[in-house]
């Protein structure tokens, strides 16, 4: 096994590495130290250094499942641990478990479980993403139509909870009014737009009401056309909003990804996985509400042939950005760490390696494969080395 921690006591330790990317700059031959889960110093190394590059941990806003489990299907602490364990191998150090359109009872269960995880300081669980149920039926994708519904007092009471960390909700603005968006924001929610067939004017009204992002850009949203820009057109031209993007080579064409990179200001495009239960497993199918989803290579489809999430992981998304889209490595890493942290409002703690920041960090090899993953200074994954 490689030995990276020269000392370890109460989430304290140090590592000397050949390369370090702090979120802005690259450094060579440095030692990073942490105490009680936070970075205490980065200084020139005085002895031998570990091969590889230390980078900020990846933050994923949209994780439906992993490790063979789906959050909607089995909302429990064990499910969250299994999801985090699966994604830790691929660089995720913080995530928003995502509950897609479902019953109020299931939504409440998922919130209860996330609250328990946060109270128990479960590594990596920082909040909850409600993807639905206030969506558009024409753009529902694989979301179950029978659970798509208007915002009611039952959901609003759930959204007002203060024990579930960062709260993000995806809504269709044709079905959630600007006043309701303001109400959600007052409840402490971050409102993103998606699964929508809205025209551009409706989308712009939602942004003016305080919506701040777009969920999986291009997918399940009204397209850009010559006379009706749709949600895609507004998302690409709005300088202030964030856009999540699924870089698995299946959800969008490379040219569409390059258009987004060219159109959005730097810092406003970020990587998400939309990962389903097979991530980190060899599973070829899984139950999904009353049907099933089948895996063919890296493609997931339901019985009607519609894309049903992904088996993407964050490290693979970073590699795709670098290798297929020619994104500069530092920018690709920021799209997986700093920009999600900024979008979620936690960039004072995450997304960089610097004094006072949480010691959420990854050791990557030259191919951007994860060798080790720490959350708050505790190693949650380390690759097995062959002797």
Task: Please outline the helices and strands.
Elements: E1 13-21, E2 26-35, E3 38-44, E4 50-56, E5 58-63, E6 65-66, E7 69-70, H1 77-88, E8 92-100, H2 104-119, E9 127-131, H3 153-159, E10 166-171, H4 178-186, E11 189-193, H5 200-208, E12 213-214, H6 230-237, E13 242-245, H7 254-263, E14 269-271, E15 285-288, E16 291-296, E17 299-302, H8 314-323, H9 329-336, H10 338-344, E18 361-364, E19 370-375, E20 378-382
Parallel strand pairs: 1-4, 5-8, 8-9, 9-10, 10-11, 11-12, 12-13, 13-14
Antiparallel strand pairs: 1-2, 2-3, 4-18, 6-7, 15-16, 16-17, 18-19, 19-20
Helix pairs in contact: 5-6, 8-9
What does this structure look like?
With 387 residues, the protein is an alpha/beta fold. It has two domains: 13-56 and 353-382, Urease, subunit C, domain 1 (Roll), CATH 2.30.40; 58-344, Metal-dependent hydrolases (TIM Barrel, Alpha-Beta Barrel), CATH 3.20.20. It is 25% helix and 27% strand. It is built from ten helices and 20 strands. It has helices at residues 77-88, 104-119, 153-159, 178-186, 200-208, 230-237, 254-263, 314-323, 329-336, 338-344; strands at residues 13-21, 26-35, 38-44, 50-56, 58-63, 65-66, 69-70, 92-100, 127-131, 166-171, 189-193, 213-214, 242-245, 269-271, 285-288, 291-296, 299-302, 361-364, 370-375, 378-382. The strands form four sheets. An eight-stranded parallel beta sheet has the order 5-8-9-10-11-12-13-14, sandwiched between helices. A seven-stranded mixed beta sheet has the order 3-2-1-4-18-19-20, with helices on one face. A three-stranded antiparallel beta sheet has the order 15-16-17, with no helix packed on it. Helix 5 (200-208) packs across helix 6 and helix 8 (314-323) packs antiparallel against helix 9 (329-336). It starts with 12 loop residues before the first strand and ends in a 5-residue tail after the last strand.
């Amino acid at each position: 096994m490689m030995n990276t921690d020269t000392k370890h006591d109460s989430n304290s330790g140090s590592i000397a590495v050949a390369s370090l990317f702090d979120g802005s700059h690259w450094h060579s031959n440095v030692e990073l130290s942490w105490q009680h889960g936070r970075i205490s110093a980065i200084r020139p190394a005085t002895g031998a250094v570990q091969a590889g590059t230390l980078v900020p941990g990846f933050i994923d806003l949209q994780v439906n499942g992993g490790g063979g489990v789906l959050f909607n299907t089995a909302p429990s602490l064990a499910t969250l641990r299994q999801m985090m364990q699966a994604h830790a191998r691929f660089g995720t150090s913080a995530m928003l478990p995502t509950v897609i359109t479902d019953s109020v009872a299931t939504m409440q269960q998922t919130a209860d479980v996330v609250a328990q995880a946060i109270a128990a300081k479960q590594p990596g669980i920082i909040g909850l993403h409600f993807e639905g149920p206030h969506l558009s039926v024409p753009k529902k994708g694989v979301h179950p139509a029978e659970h798509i519904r208007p915002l009611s007092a039952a959901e609003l009471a759930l959204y007002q909870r203060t024990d579930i960390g960062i709260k993000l909700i995806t809504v269709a603005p044709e079905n959630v009014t600007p006043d309701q968006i303001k109400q959600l924001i007052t409840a402490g929610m971050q409102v993103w737009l998606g699964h929508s067939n809205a025209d551009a004017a409706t989308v712009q009204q939602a942004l003016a009401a305080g919506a701040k992002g777009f969920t999986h850009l291009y997918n399940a949203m009204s397209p850009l056309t010559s006379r009706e820009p749709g949600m895609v057109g507004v998302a690409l031209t709005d300088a202030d909003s964030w856009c999540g993007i699924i870089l698995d080579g299946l959800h969008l064409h490379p040219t569409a990804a390059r258009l987004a990179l060219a159109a959005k200001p730097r810092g406003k495009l970020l990587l998400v996985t939309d990962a389903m239960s097979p991530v980190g497993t060899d599973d070829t199918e899984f139950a999904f509400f009353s049907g099933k989803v089948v895996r063919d290579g890296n493609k997931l489809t339901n019985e009607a042939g519609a894309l049903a999430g992904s088996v993407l992981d964050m490290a693979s998304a970073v590699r795709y950005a670098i290798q297929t889209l020619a994104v500069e490595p530092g920018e690709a890493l920021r799209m997986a760490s700093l920009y999600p942290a900024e979008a979620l409002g936690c960039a004072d703690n995450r997304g960089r390696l610097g004094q006072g920041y949480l010691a959420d960090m990854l050791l990557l090899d030259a191919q951007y494969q994860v060798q080790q993953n720490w959350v708050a200074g505790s190693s949650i994954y380390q690759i097995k080395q062959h002797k």
